[in-house]
Write a structure and sequence with these properties.
globular; D-amino Acid Aminotransferase, Chain A, domain 1; alpha/beta
């Protein structure tokens, strides 16, 4: 599954160093230049990235990558003049009911327009019954524990209603106020590392991103010791991502998976409609880059081939064109 063992490197660092801070201050002027160049190319389709924080990192990095990598699509974080072919909602979840209604009114102003991540579907992962719906579809998720459950093993307690929420591991002793409890799944491999596989789903396109390795059960950037960019998604992973889309009606999300080494079982542990998409300091240094980059650009910057052999920009164009034709 991992394509290049030589990519194992030092512990990744977050984008908080002075070089990254300076680089990100140059981001908006550079985005404006790329936006202008993209418009001059006369690309046939226009995407409006809709957000309450259009100058935030998630929007700007996405706009930059589309305008630099796509042949067919021009992207803007401000409302474009003229015809809009697609509206892509990019907001931190969960959305308030007021924000959902405001987004619906914005979208209703545009007719015959493809909507990526419609506001009425945006909070799926936070909604009551979402885990049950995934389980009924055969997707293996961590079992959410209820007060009446007789379970007595380890449980992960996760702060309710928050993104990047606080979590801790403890013996299950029943519900705790403000937390949701899930049965702990031990997926440590024989080498002593836990692995979290991250992939992206966008309008039918399933793309591998990276694998985080940690000796800590809670695999995240903070605890990661090694990072791989070279892994190939399996048929099981592709089917799982597409099934989540069918159930949730979400068109774009990052999907975090755990894989049990003994039997290859795949567990879904996170669905994120507003994932971090900019690169870590360690990745920037390895690519000899001053500016951070979108995660879809990382493999090319590191001199790596895409696992499926198709450049990310071409795969993006193919996926969105198919959606526009089927809209």
């Amino acid at each position: 599954m991992l394509q290049d063992e030589s990519l194992r490197g030092p512990k990744p660092s977050d984008t908080r160093g002075w070089l990254s801070v300076l680089g990100r201050r140059c981001l908006h002027p550079w985005a404006a230049v790329c936006r202008y160049r993209s418009r001059l190319k006369g690309k046939p389709y226009v995407i409006w990235l809709v957000s309450s924080k259009p100058r935030g990192s998630g929007c700007i990095f996405t706009e930059l990558w589309i305008n630099n990598s796509s042949v067919k699509f021009h992207a803007q974080t401000t409302r474009p003049d003229g015809k809009i072919d697609a509206i892509w909602v990019l907001e931190q979840d969960p959305l308030s009911s007021e924000r959902i209604e405001a987004l619906k009114r914005t979208i209703d102003d545009e007719t015959d327009c493809l909507v990526i991540n419609a506001p009425e579907n945006y909070n799926f992962y936070h909604s009551k019954g979402s885990f049950e719906a995934l389980q009924k579809a055969g997707i293996v998720v961590a079992q959410e524990l209820k007060e009446e459950d007789s379970y007595s093993g380890l449980a992960v307690y996760k702060k309710a209603g928050e993104q990047n929420s606080k979590k801790f591991l403890a013996n299950y002793t029943g519900p705790k106020l403000g937390y949701r409890a899930f049965q702990f799944i031990d997926t440590r491999w024989r080498d002593g590392y836990y692995r979290r596989f991250r992939l992206f789903y966008l309008c039918g396109w399933v793309r591998s991103s990276k694998v985080f390795l940690s000796k800590d059960w809670n695999v995240c950037v903070r605890t990661t010791e090694h990072l791989y960019y070279g892994f190939e998604v399996t048929d099981k992973m592709v089917a799982l991502a597409k099934a989540i889309h069918q159930i949730s009606k979400i068109d774009y999300f990052a999907l975090d998976l755990l894989v049990r080494e003994a039997d290859g079982e795949v567990f879904c542990v996170d669905i994120n409609v507003f994932p971090r998409v900019w690169s870590l300091d360690s990745t920037n240094r390895a690519a000899k880059r001053f500016l951070p980059m979108h995660t879809f650009a990382a493999r090319q910057a590191l001199g790596m081939e895409e696992p499926d052999g198709i450049p990310a920009g071409a795969a993006f164009d193919r996926a969105l064109l198919a959606c526009l034709q089927g809209h």
